Amino acid sequence: MQRISVWRSARIIWLLATLLFLLAPVVITVFGSFSARWGRTPWEAFTLEWYGYVFRTYGQAIRVSLLVGACTVVITTLIGIPAGYALARYRFWGRALLEDALLLPLTLPGLALGLAIVQTYVILRGQLLLLIIGHVVFTLPYMVQMVTASLRTGNVLRLEAAAASLGANWFQRFFLVTLPSIRNTVVAAGLAVATLSLGEFNLSYFLYSPLAMPLPVGMYEAYASLRIEIGSAFTTLFVALLLPLLLVGQLLGRTRATSST
Amino acid sequence: MTLQLDRLTKTYRDGTQALRGISLLIQPGEIIVLLGPSGCGKSTLLRLIAGLDVPTSGQVYLGTRDITYTPAERRDMGMVFQNYALFPHMSVAENIGFGLRVRGITRAERQQRVEAMLEKLQLIPLADRRPDQLSGGQQQRVALGRALAINPSVLLLDEPLTALDAQLRESLRSELRRTLEQFRTTSIYVTHDQTEAMSLGDRVVVLRNGLIEQVGTPRALYQRPASAFVARFIGSANRIGGVLRLTATGPSAETALGPVTLAAAPAGAADGALIDVFVRPEDVTVVPAAGAALLAAIVQVEFLGDRLRLQVRTTTGATITASVAAHTMISTNLVGLCIRQAIALPTAGE
Question: Domains of chain A (ranges plus CATH)?
Answer without folding.
Answer: 1-47 (no CATH), 59-259 (1.10.3720.10)
